[in-house]
Design goal:
By secondary structure, the protein is of the alpha/beta class. It contains twelve helices and 15 strands. It folds into two domains: 33-286, Type I PLP-dependent aspartate aminotransferase-like (Major domain) (Aspartate Aminotransferase, domain 2, 3-Layer(aba) Sandwich); 289-388, Aspartate Aminotransferase, domain 1 (Alpha-Beta Complex), CATH 3.90.1150.
Length: 391
């Protein structure tokens, strides 16, 4: 992995210490150039002219295939969305719930998981189970927690592949096996995993997997995708109806629903330039290598955890076990509010970080383009803050 070459291709790396890819990743030059190229092409040649229209169709087919290949799926198992949250709503509002059905979530979840789940008992008479989850739990502890919770009443097990506030990587394949044995489905928020972990839907065996283009994939905002296992597409109803949700109709209200095609979930106009950008970002990551990206991100996070833990007054709130670790690290400093730490790190060393609510702390996203020297510079900033509270 040629880090110098990679960093040269990502302009944001020369404008500070960017440790917030888990919120939104900085796009490489090829991504920005691809977006500009497509925007100019459409605008200057007429967006609905025959050659532009035909090329747009080719692009969207190519994008769908590229995304599918990236996550180990087929093109007819990928629906294009605006973001992770839209994909989540697509699934939970498309399931045909029955009174007494159970949904299981964890208490560490991002609001994109927790808030939709909170609404379900009122909207669908669903019983919601919220599992108390230790941010530094071992793989065995996580599996035991789910084994105790899943029952014959469980309809959906719903959780993040990587917990956003602490970086706890969930053993997805094993949880999916438990859920399937009980007859339940598995819906996964992959916002902190896609582009970060080496994903393969066939191995992980999730039924539904939602992710965005703008975080670890390093693409533009406002686009994402959802994987739906092919034999389940027909069992998820469309909650938003458009032209693709029917096969045909007449002017008297008669229509034939589109049941089996994943395209039924997609509405109408979308931005070809943004999708072109996402495809370029995925190709950029594939050139680097998915396994190499996952390993380097986790390795850099390990350095953060071990070196920051040596600082008196600094506490690590993320797992250290490689089986449950990834490129996210959350820490706190005695005597400091997380927001003040984020502000101070930007002022002192131009480090871009963010706060987390629970566990309350500051989160660093160590992406493959970050360096050991950058970590050392942030560490000095943290050390200075920790020292300042001693007096």
């Amino acid at each position: 992995m040629d880090i110098a070459k990679i960093r040269e291709a990502i302009p944001a790396t020369s404008h500070g210490l960017y440790f917030n890819t888990g919120w939104s990743g900085p796009s490489p030059r090829p991504v920005v150039e691809r977006i500009k190229e497509w925007l100019e092409y459409e605008s200057y040649n007429g967006p609905t002219s025959k050659p532009v229209f035909e090329r747009h169709i080719e692009l969207m087919n190519s994008v769908r295939s590229t995304i599918a290949s990236f996550v180990g799926a087929t093109a007819d198992e990928i629906t294009l969305t605006q973001n992770t949250t839209e994909g989540i709503h697509l699934i939970i509002n498309g399931i045909q719930w029955k009174p007494g059905d159970e949904m299981i979530i964890c208490d560490l979840e991002h609001p994109s998981v927790s808030i939709p789940a909170y609404y379900m008992p009122k909207r669908q008479s669903v019983t919601l189970k919220i599992l108390d989850t230790n941010p530094t739990a071992s793989k065995a502890e996580i599996l035991e927690m789910f084994a105790k919770a899943i029952s014959h009443k469980t309809k959906l097990v719903f959780f993040s592949h990587v917990q956003y506030a602490c970086g706890l990587k969930m053993p997805l394949a094993e949880i999916a096996a438990m859920a399937h044995h009980a007859g339940a489905w598995v819906l996964v928020d992959g916002a902190q995993a896609a582009g970060h972990l080496d994903l393969d839907m066939r191995v992980l065996d999730a039924d539904f997997y939602c992710f965005p283009g703008h975080k670890w994939i390093l693409g533009p905002d406002g686009i994402g995708a959802t994987y739906i296992k092919k034999d389940l597409i027909g069992q998820i109803e469309t909650s938003k109806m458009g032209n693709r949700s029917i096969l045909n109709s007449d002017r008297r209200g008669n229509y034939t629903p589109n049941v089996e095609s994943i395209r039924k979930f997609e509405l109408t106009t979308t931005s070809a330039p943004l999708w072109a950008g996402m495809e370029a970002s995925i190709k950029f990551l594939l050139d680097v290598g998915k396994p190499e990206i996952e390993e380097r991100s986790r390795s850099l996070a390990s350095i953060v955890k071990s070196t920051f833990a040596e600082i008196p007054g600094v506490h690590i709130h993320s797992p250290t076990d490689p089986l449950t670790s990834c490129g996210l690290t959350t820490f706190s400093i005695d005597g400091w509010e997380p927001k003040d730490v984020v502000d101070a790190l930007w002022t002192d060393v131009q480090a871009v970080t963010r706060t987390t609510p629970w566990p309350a702390g500051v989160r660093l996203s160590t992406a493959f383009f970050n360096t050991e020297d950058e970590i050392s510079r942030v560490r000095k900033g943290v050390e200075k803050l920790a020292e300042s509270r001693k007096h």
